[in-house]
Amino acid sequence: IAGDCVGNGWRTLLQATRVTKEEAFLPFFVLKGGLFFFILYVAWIYVDSNYDLGPRLVSKNSSLRPYFLQKCLGLRSPFVPTPWALSPHVQTALSAVVCPGTEPRFQREYLELKDGGVVALDWANYEEKTLNDHRSVVIVVSGVVTTGDGVARVCHGAWRRGFRPVVFRQRGHTDVPLTTPRLQSFGDPSDFREALEYIRATNPGSDLTAVSLSTGCGVLISYLGEYGSSTYLTAAVCISPIYCAETLYSSQAIPSLYRWILLQRQKALLLSHVSCLQKVDALDSASALRSGSMVEFEEIVFSKTNGVHTMEDYWEQNEPTREIDEVAVPLLCISSKDDPLVPKESIPTELFLTYPHFFLALTEKGGHCGFFEGFQPESRAERLAFEFLRAAQKLNMAAHANGNGMMV
Q: SUPFAM superfamilies attached here (predicted)?
């Protein structure tokens, strides 16, 4: 009997202890959850008070503005950078190293140009056997410092959203042979024009669009201005464009490390083709390799190989915005105020407020070609780019169905 009493006493004590723990867990859980949401709220207030959650759309108040705002979620939802990548330098570094989960397989085509030069078209595929007729082609124009991972990431994003990406490789770049003693200068769109004509001829009926990154935007913006309504493109997007080439090459506001990296990439390009470029009598390769600034290198190499005598004439022919008033298709530029290569003072916001086809998605943070958000970084700029292109295609189809041009 005594044993039963002791056993019952222990069971009663254990039950009481269990009830006590269960009762204590609820307020502990509430306290922990409340503390979490309080910290989240404080963090949100900090973010909101330090920079605009954007992106902010800068454009003329035309009928296109509300259309793209409605169709592009990336223009309406808040942009909060990856918490551990708030620095513009970290964002810029991520743009070079973040790679997609699935690498594309590139099928290269070499295209001989009218002057005997050669460019390459790298067609990206992700399936063994794919009927690509239903996919509209998007041409990707990379910059001097755009890495292979960056290009692969853009191509992967394009494929996921129903596009067929092809990368335009300039003469002499990325293992493309240099067959003539001339390098494509910063804002010369002539090679791109011939490549686009070939893509259009070999993909009849495809709705062509284009995406460019960094210095590659100089070629695309120049092309849109120079060819106006005969570009063969429905729309275009520039991610971290260089609005003023002369500023990029001469501004002391750009950190010296970035200027050094750009200069070394250009010198490496010269070294890989020095035997071909030696045919240019006016070119002094040794002086170019000893040059200490991008301006000096551009004058010695690119102006000489393109037959331009003065830097004033060179910039007049290569500034991307030189014929900006002729652009006739929707163009979205995605820029950040903390871009280490593009000082915020050089972003021409008045241009976007003047011309109806120009749209600027402006963020406070994002670095150069970064714009990464989420704990597992994903680029908002690249997602927004394809939202914009798809919306422009739908608008173009509706306009043609009605027998009208695109509304402005």
A: alpha/beta-Hydrolases (SSF53474)
